[in-house]
Write the structure tokens for this entry.
Amino acid sequence: MFWDIVWRRRFGKTDVYRTGKSKKSVLIVPSGINNAFPITTVKMIIPLLKYKLTKKEKYIKETALFMAIKEDILDKDTLDMVKDSFDHVKTKVGMPSNVNKKLMQQCKAPTLIMAAEKDCLFPAQKVLSRAKRIIPNNTAHMLKGCGHMHMLPEPEKKMIVDFLSV
């Protein structure tokens, strides 16, 4: 029997539990494996605070650009989604806690982990390094040149399909 570990946010904390239902897992830009230091998000928080105070949309773009790295990803729909998130979604300040190593080692299902090289919140170098140590039977892949917000490149889409098809 395969076991799978599922993360979910509830009441401001991260819960990890076994489902026993999945035969394979794909984690894309996963939080809670090894998060960035909170101080690294200061560059994002300043334009966000400016937006909250002034409601000037140029600050939404500044905030999103910190996460996206590349401006071409920030089309109108994406910026509208970011704006709506900041305007209408109550978000908890701070990072989710990192998952427990013993719990993650219970995940026996083959797991593909994709993390973005330039992710300001969950950097690939930290995420993939820890994931390799705590998640058995994993395949780790760095999304080169990508930030937290990105368009999944075609080769990586194919990698996911191939991984799930085998």
